[in-house]
Amino acid sequence: MKFLQNPLSPDTQFGVLFHDVQMQAIFEDSKTFADCLPTTDPEEIMIRYESEKLRDDFRLDKFIQAHFRRPPLISTEHDSQHRLPTAEHISRMWPKLTRNTEPNSSLLPVPYPYIVPGGRFRELYYWDSYFTMLGLRIDGQMDLVRGMIENFAHLIDTYGHIPNANRTYFLDRAQPPFFALMLRLLAAEDGPAVLIRYLPHLHKEYMFWMDGSFRLDESEPAYRRVVLVPDFCTLNRYWDDTPAPRPESYREDVDLVHEAIALGYAPESVYRHVRAACESGWDFSSRWMSDARTFAKTKTCHILPVDLNCLLYVMEQTMADAYRGAGEPKAADLYDRRAENRAHAIRELFWSERAGFFMDLQSRSRLDTGIFSLAGLFPLYVGIATPGQAERVHEKVVNEFLQPGGVLTSLHQTGQQWDSPNGWAPLQWIAYRSLTDYGFIETARLIRERWLALNDRVFQNTGKLMEKYNVVDTHLDAGGGEYPNQDGFGWTNGVYLALKAEEA
């Protein structure tokens, strides 16, 4: 078969066959069929399906077995080496989590090897990779870091942005934009010329997030990922252009829409809000639900997320530094102004004096959503919170977020995986680094020690590092969401090594 540079998403390529496989639950996990590899030409498969499905003895499961190869889960079992120090186990896991592009699959080709999270996650994820890189750097695996950054640059060159992951069915959405922070991590090793080298890619990534900003006015204040906020600047939201079920969660989305229709919501709107929540990386969370508890009431596109806008601030700041280094002071000044305007908006709009915390905003009313989550630490993480704001945030963390196993993702229990009682590695790092940078050393130390101890205990008991953890009752597993807790696990490994290095 010919290697395809930009193959169709499997739901488009296989049409009615894809729909039938997903709705008949041939595979327990909808993502499995989206990742299956056809063993013969897709057009020939479709011709055979249209003919053979009319037979009385036709069985769809047998047809799929004959024409597709099921992708294996990525196992990190390691010969029951539970007595290894956790850091040594992680070092041994990097080769098991390293992958290359597989031709003729739904994977988007990239030139260099990359680290995948593990379990059902068999591809190069955008924001996961930054936190994985933190550990790769500690482990002296900088060639892998350089290759992964080259892969992201290749995706930007080819598709105009970094998708959620390198799958055809992820092309319509991104993830939290950590590319600028990846470049800063690499620049800390290779020097500031890194920023200049990747400036064209950074600029193209920025244009993706700011697409349509020139057309905004009071009659059309929002377009795709940009929202005009009068008296301040243009801010950003999460978005997805495709109002259809996600191929990797097809059956779940169709079922959800049936529930949403009963509540009076239009299917196209529900699909777009759910997909936008996936772009956030927090899929799913009370952050995106209009009543903080009902999944069918997901309203992601109506929310201005504080963490996203902090990451866009870093992107603007990094572009200013890169243009200055390239000898283009006028362009540097432009992005300095954009960064400062955005920082001012974050300090003024996203700060709730009543709550003493940074909150997401409802884009239409500019009122906060009322949801307390660790996204509220991002203004500290990027260094734009005032000392007074940081003091109030610290109080909230100590009094409500800090738990025996680390810090909670949010203060809300919804059954969704990005809510209480779960803790996630990237947010432990954000919290640790944020509080350290603002001088709250003792609280940061407690977060680090409790998270590392929880990771160590689970590894000693199971031989695995997990995708997420229950930080409230450290003897229970984390849960919630559309799939079981996965092991591996890329960003858990990376953050563990980065936090462990902070002990020195």
Q: Which strand order spans the largest sheet, edge to edge or round the barrel?
A: 5-6-7
List the uncertain runs.
Answer: 1-6
Q: Roughly how much helix do the residues carry, as a percent range?
A: 40-55%
Count the strands? 15
Which structural category fits the helices and strands?
mainly alpha
N-C termini distance: 53 Å
Radius of gyration: 22 Å
Shape: globular
- Give the number of helices: 19
Strand content: 5-15%
Largest sheet: 3 strands, antiparallel
Average pLDDT, rounded to a whole number, is 95
What does this structure look like?
With 504 residues, this protein is mainly α. Helices cover 47% and strands 7% of the residues. It has 19 helices and 15 strands. The chain has helices at residues 10-23, 30-35, 42-52, 60-67, 86-93, 126-138, 142-159, 179-190, 193-197, 199-209, 250-262, 267-279, 306-325, 329-349, 378-381, 387-401, 425-437, 441-462, 490-501, and strands spanning 37-38, 68-69, 98-99, 114-115, 222-223, 226-229, 233-236, 303-304, 351-352, 357-358, 361-362, 402-403, 406-407, 422-424, 468-470. The strands form 7 sheets. A 3-stranded antiparallel β-sheet has the order 5-6-7. The chain has a two-stranded antiparallel sheet with strand order 1-2. A two-stranded antiparallel ribbon has the order 3-4. Strand 12 (402-403) and strand 13 (406-407) form a beta hairpin. The longest helix has 22 residues, at 441-462. It is globular. The protein starts with 9 loop residues before the first helix and ends with a helix. The relative contact order is 0.11.
